[in-house]
Amino acid sequence: MVSPVAATSAAQQTDRELVERVAGGDRAAVRLLFMRHHARVYRFAARQTGSELMADDITNEVFLELWRQAPAFQGRSEVSTWLLGIARFKALSALRKRKEEAIDEDEAAAIPDTGDTPEVAVMKDDKATALKRMVNALPEEHRTVIDLAYYHAKSVVEIAEVLQIPVATVKTRMFYARKKLGEALQAAGFERGWP
Prior knowledge:
By secondary structure, the protein is mainly alpha-helical. Helix content is 75%, strand content 0%.
């Protein structure tokens, strides 16, 4: 049984210190990092894939990768940024694999679309729901920067680290993503801006 003093000192350890412990084979450190970052990694993976089931699998794979790669972690970024970078790679790989297994395009075209048109769906939803739908409709490169910036509170520099692209590219993608969202909100009859 862990003493309350040991539990308190473990809870006060930084993420980097915990990764060092993981590198030394400490399973308790993995559990602590999992408790701290599980929800964030899961939400990010769910937004990237659009699938809760895939997000569960990806989240588990991220923490397995943490166990394997902890000795190689050099601390050039925050641990949370590193974990989201792993999650992004795993999500892209899972989506690529899913596309390879997808049904034939002709079969998909033959399935009737019984859903509402985008305009009708926007009218039915409130602004937050409409905005989420609009974010999901953005191209992947724009959707990802919006997701990291607004839903995960990552800075432009951290986003650049997660996506492994220059800071200027992040800023450009952010500009165009916000412009497209503003236009979409205005076209749907909402005031511009976040809810």
